Amino acid sequence: MDEKDRIIIDMLLKNARIPYTDIAKKLGVSETAVRKRIKKLEKERIIEGYTIKVNPSCLGYKSIAHVGIDTEPGHFLGVACRLTEMEEIKCVAITSGSNMIVADIWAKNNKHLSEIINKVSKIEGVVAAHPTIIVEMLKS
Fold this sequence. Notes:
This protein is an alpha+beta fold. It has 2 domains: 41 residues, Orthogonal Bundle (Arc Repressor Mutant, subunit A); 79 residues, Lrp/AsnC effector binding domain/regulation of amino acid metabolism (RAM) domain (Alpha-Beta Plaits). It is built from 5 helices and 4 strands. A 4-stranded antiparallel sheet has the order 2-3-1-4. The longest helix is centred in the first third of the chain and has 13 residues.
């Protein structure tokens, strides 16, 4: 991977739908060269996929929270798997920080968020759930 690949990745991170011609202009290469580089990055699994960024509040979700979750050691993976099955939970990550698992929850309002957190707390093996409500997202 060289500097041109890094520039391609940076441009795709900012806008996954950027035309290859725009990337080619920035790099001073042909569109075909960009296409080949991107295919190579995909084959090497440096680029694993493409996605969209959604504004949750525009979809009716007014309460967004990161929730740190601690479990009993024997239930750790089971809890993580159960969390991935919940529709309101948009991201589940295993961490080495102050919590074992961190989940991102999109809720319609604070009451709905509280209901979801209570549901999470009742999963077998959950010891604690520590919500941090997002007031304003500056970068994601």
